[in-house]
Amino acid sequence: MNVILLQTTRRALYLTGVKHTRKPVFGLPQCFELPESMRDGKTAGDLPAFAKYVRECANSANMGTNQVVFCLEDDAVVSKEYQHLPCKKKDLLSLAGLEAETVLQDGVDSYMIQNYEYNRVNPLTGKLTSSLFAVKTRLLGDVRKAFSKYGLHVVKIVPPISGLLHAGKLIPAERDQTIALLDFDYAKTRLVLFQNGMPVFQRTFETVFDDIAEIIMRNRSVSFADAVRSVTAYGFTVENDEAAARQISDLLDACVSEAIRNIRMVLSSERLDLNRLILCGGLSIVPGFDEFCARLELDIPIENIASFSVPLPGVNAAAKRAGFQPAAFFTAAGILAAKKAEDIDFLLLVKSISGTRAANVAVLAVITLLAVGVMALEPVVYLSALKQQAQDKVALNDRKYTEVKALLQEQSKLEQQLSERKSDRKLLPSGKSNAKEITDRLISQIISKAKSVDSCDLDNMTGTVSLTFTTANYNDYLAVKRQVESNGYFTIAVPFRAEAGAGGPCTCSVSLSVKDFTPLESGSKDGGRQ
């Protein structure tokens, strides 16, 4: 089967023909500059017009198929990592729905939610980590409907990060080895951290490729598509313009540095050491990109996925002539190869709901036909039943039953209230509160060092604290983190996370548990910290 891989950036549409077999063969990616009305993420505003444009572009490039794999970037996807206790797979989606409620402003009912479990147990908390992905249900239906109108059959709707999560597991896992897989794609920059072959962390960043292509386009007075082809063939070069060259270098430096900063943050919170950084994606094959990364002196071994003994996709003759290599399509191959159990395909959910609705309509139709048949064949029985029903209603409304029904209702109400009171009583703990001691420790270890405290949620029954605070800079955040880890009073339930601007305030969050804390039990006579 042949398919078209569809990706969009802020300014361009990319269509890549793929011969989808056991080892997929990728064709030359075709770049089409989006019309002004569709740029900067506006394609979803008029999906029929976008579908028509895709059809025209596919025809002009002689794609030869109408099967489309729609890559839905994080502009339209809400994602969140969360920790959870081990549970059955059927219960995991329910947990994802509860977590989604914390990030979806307009409620989970209008979203399709998919979940990806990392299957790695945190050695400190004993919990697992998963990522949830949520997309508006209406958007999925509109994409399918709009593309079908113009003869395009959408066979998958996926966030591309799922392809990197799947493909990264093919890298041989070594004991106590931590690797960072960095996909520099035209559409986005994607990062997945693996430890012993299992994902630890995933994140998607904005790409700088559109900005670089625009600089080259102005420098050489060529179209956007020609500038893209120029980068693949000759690298990030400009002619006789030192300012433009410096701009490109600064953009690449910022892109790589952002990824490295996130890697180091996770390594610090998870107490891991990075063994190697592996590059893949369309920009990783650009001439001179490896040398550029090496000049950054990151003190991290950097390699290309092509140097590993992992299954790589094929490329056809046209793609080879343009300078494309299999490493450019490593993530895309993962999207196509993901099995149903690991596939984050929102279209499967849409089809499932459509099938359920169709089945319900069919069942309702059968029941209606049976009812009509019974009424037509047995009118006497039907009229007799109506007569008996009327008589029963009259008998039940007799005054002698009124008092009995009132007493039964009152008894049911009292029993419900008694049950609620018993349940409430079981939830009431007793024993000495440890809130003061925990608060004093927080003040001495964290709050006294913080510039401000944004939120603090202390649960005295379980000895847990969820805290969001701000430090003056990143170094102060590290000082707080080291003090908490070395003091020994708290254990880390959810690792430290920090977001900081360049030299500015640092927003930090962490969840802590009091070490050796004995949770208060409902109705217990003693409890608290021993």
Primary descriptors:
530 residues, alpha+beta, seven-stranded mixed β-sheet, five-stranded mixed β-sheet, 15 helices, 25% strand, globular, disordered C terminus
General description of the model:
This protein has 530 residues and is of the alpha+beta class. It is built from 15 helices and 21 strands. It has helices at residues 47-60, 89-100, 137-149, 161-168, 209-220, 224-234, 242-270, 289-295, 317-321, 330-337, 346-377, 379-396, 399-427, 435-447, 474-487, and strands at residues 2-8, 12-19, 25-26, 30-33, 67-71, 78-84, 111-121, 128-136, 153-158, 178-184, 188-195, 198-206, 276-280, 302-304, 314-315, 452-459, 464-471, 490-500, 506-514, 517-518, 528-529. Strand 10 and strand 11 (188-195) form a beta hairpin. Helix 1 (47-60) crosses helix 3 (137-149), helix 4 packs across helix 10 and helix 5 runs antiparallel to helix 7.
Brief digest:
The protein is an alpha+beta fold. The protein has helices at 47-60, 89-100, 137-149, 161-168, 209-220, 224-234, 242-270, 289-295, 317-321, 330-337, 346-377, 379-396, 399-427, 435-447, 474-487; strands at 2-8, 12-19, 25-26, 30-33, 67-71, 78-84, 111-121, 128-136, 153-158, 178-184, 188-195, 198-206, 276-280, 302-304, 314-315, 452-459, 464-471, 490-500, 506-514, 517-518, 528-529.
Mean of pLDDT: 84
| Structural classification | alpha+beta
> Which overall shape is indicated by the principal axes computed on the Cα atoms?
globular
Q: Strand percentage, roughly? A: 25-35%
Major sheet details: 7 strands, mixed
Give the terminus-to-terminus CA distance: 65 Å
Annotation field: number of helices: 15
pLDDT < 50 runs, ≥5 residues: 353-363, 523-530
> What is the count of β-strands?
21
What is the CA-atom radius of gyration, in angstroms? 30 Å
- Residues in helices, as a percent range: 40-55%
